[in-house]
Amino acid sequence: MLITMMLRPLRIVLLCSVATAWAGCSTSGTPITSKAEAAADTLPAAPKAPEVKALTFNRDVAPIIFANCACCHHPGEAAPFSLLTYSDVRRRSSQIVDVTTRRFMPPWLPVQDSHDFANARRLTDEQLDTIRNWVKSGTVEGNAADLPAAPTFTNGWQLGEPDVVLQSPPYQLAASGPDQFRNFVIPIDAKTPQWVEAIELRPTNQRATHHARLGVDRTMESMRRDAADPQPGYEGMAWGQDPDGQLVTWVPGMLPHRGAPGTAWRLYPKTSLVLHTHMQTTGKPETVQFQIGIHYAKEAPTVRPAILRIGGRNIDIAAGDAHYVVADEYVVPVDIEARSIFPHAHSLCRQMKVTAVSPDGSTKPLVEIKDFDEKWHDDYRFAQPVRLTKGTRLRTEFTYDNTDGNIRNRHHPPERTVYGSNITDEMEDVYLQVTVAHPDERAAFMEDMEQTDLRSQRVGLLKTLEMYPKDPWSIEGLASCSLSLGKPKEAIRLLEERMKLPEDPTYAKVSLGAAYIADGNAPRAEQLAREVLAKDPAYPLAWLGLGKALDARKQPADAEKAYRKAIELAPALIDARLALADNLAKQNKPEDAMEAAAEAIKYSPDKPNAFLKLAEILAHARRYDECLKNLEEARRLAPYTHPPKVLLAVYCYQNGDADKSKALLLEAREAEPAHPVPELFLGQFAAHEQRWDDARQFLSASAAKAIPENWPESHKKRFMILLETERFKLAQHFQDEQLARSAVGEWIKYDPDNAQVKQIYNSLNSLTQ
Amino acid sequence: MRRFHARLLFGVVILLTGSFSELLSGGRNCFADETHGSSVRDMKLPATMDLVDVDGQPFDLRKASNGRVHIVVFVRSDCPISNKLAPEVRELCTAFKSHDADFYLVYVDPRESAEAIRTHLHDYEYTCPALRDMKHELAMATGATVTPEAVVFDHDWKVAYRGRINNQFEDIGKCRDKATTHELRDAIEAALAGRTIAEPETKAIGCYIDDLK
User: Fold this and answer.
1) A37 vs B85: CB contact, 8 Å cut-off?
2) B175 touching A, CB under 8 A?
3) What is the DSSP string of A688-718?
4) Which CATH number describes the domain made up of A157-296?
């Protein structure tokens, strides 16, 4: 479980750049290139009608400027000057023609036909002509009666007065130097969990800020990193998760928006918000600070979006390569709808293209950018949700220029650049906010997404380490991938190497402890946790690790104390709460265990785990009715879980009540005749009782049923292994070689690394030869 | 030679795109401008120049400066590019102070209040004297078209260099993390050493001075 916690932050990490303000304009007047030439180069062919309409500011130009420019170009906003009056505009007129003709302003990167976006801010060719011709004909002010009312802006909160306003610590940014990337930590002081409808981010110094992204940290790890860094905030990995499928970002000119109806997310006490911030120097020292306005929702969410990340991580761009392509493909496992798309890369990236290829072969562009500028990217919201049916191939193709000709290249002269989350590395990230079309397929989708991402991270981190073999954070990331992929020994090897590096090993020690527990070496895990706690007794992850080590060492009373300490320090640390419930049940303290599980539910009401844990404890206390209620709730949240009566049957069997167990399985079969699990367990029962004919009948019936569509891959794998093991036992009893071949043939598909099944498979094959 | 052709082409473009009325109106527009951007060769600071200091008092550049080289940098307080390059201007100003080089900032926005300029000087920690070119006479005379743009005069007030401070800005919206060439510094060094400047004109990127008329 620690593993998933370790992995997530990698995903949101350093969605760094977007940035240096406007700052960029013009053509100068050397004879070498004149304004006239520049304009002539970029202008469409000379207008057919030579006569220039007598355009006026008040009638023709003001409406365009007010609607498209003034949102940022007004006092208090990110833009360096206002465009609210005739004088404001006239005093910039040729500059405006220049920047709009080049489509540098308004900033909008997607090409016109890449998709319809709700937040598009692109001027039409007609609008550009109007501005240009107005300037050409002498910037006439016109009739005062024609002037539309200048737009008014709420200088202050755009979404209205927030329920709570928090602030990031003020940070002093130097006058010059490269852009800065820092994470600021804002502790949440709320007394009870709250549903959040929207968060409005407001930098107090907009010109020095170019991008920010907000995550939530339930582990308190970000607080520890903040404390270890002498300045406000800390550098490097952001260590937060996107709050429940929402991207909370700030980019210049972006108007905050409330989430789609019914998509509230939960904010828990004693967690922290982590604000990943990209700051730019402006020429004078600046203070950068954010105000964070939180709007609570009255109701629990009805829709649960997810952030789907796609894009390749096998990136290795040679110095001097002018056209390096990274392509990736993700096959959508269930029907989904995409609501927004946020492509991200760093300074070498020149072009981006994301397309969806439907199973019928038709292709639609999702977004295309031909002149990427990391300083201006955005979360592009589709005007209409985009349906992506199961089997759709999402293809990404980004091109990179690692020559000196790419002036944004941060390396001079160019250097080999590989995948990584630092701004001097490269990325090919695309974040889509999606919802699943059929809610009961959500779990299958989430698992597919996570597994795909895990494999991709592994590839990327191996690439990073090729280039920076001593990068401690990449080694830690790779180790957590190894642990998630069930390779604790590899994780141990990596982390033991990591410990030799000079950087703060605190987190690595906690991870190493988790790896040792997975590898069965609890004493070493305990030692590591104690080492960390000796230095930092307020570190919740270390207390959790200590608890698990002590549990594994059969010292449940001490483990309980450790879990309680972890929970005291980080109440939203759900893994500690679940571990405590488990620990108390094992200590034969059912009432305390139930209370702990009920608390866990409060902190994780949208996931099945805590309900399942509570159900298990209730069952063992023989409170079957209440148990069933919690199982039903778990299944509502995760429809792929076994039918409630099947799980209850398992608990009854564990309680020694075989008859009740059998009766429940029969009831479950009655209630869900298409479900393959009740008959699998009935078959197991029959085999156990040596009723071989019954067993054969049940197992054949189970095998004949289709696997439910909403099962995640791991769930399917566990089921198939169990079913085929039973069928193989049956084949042994009946000496049925054909059945044996069929069972082992399936079994090995789902359990290819199992030595035992390999051996059986090989001996069956040698039998034939 | 290439430069010469470019100038010819420039003339043709004016004829093709400029309308008769524009030519008659004296052309305050961004497409054609005959004075700005002319070559610095043989260009000299005119004997009289209508410049004022921040308090509005007439300022005689020739009289006030007796160094071996004189540098002016055109700026505008609300131009993000000239602000972004302020640290380099500041550094050069300090670095060459003891080398007999006179450094001036020239504010080109006639509407700005003296107070706003003082605040700007304070915020960006400029230490060199500031002047105002209310009628853009100095800009016209030296062919400077944007802020920030620098002009280096030799002791005889002949223009030795005109153009960008450095190459941080390559074009509109195209900005390096940090500059890799420092043309103004090179030009001052060459002028002080009496060397010819290899590239006496470079293209400056910034906010158009002409818009402020």
Assistant:
1) no
2) yes
3) HTT-HHHHHHHHHHHHHSPPPTT--HHHHHH
4) 2.60.120.230
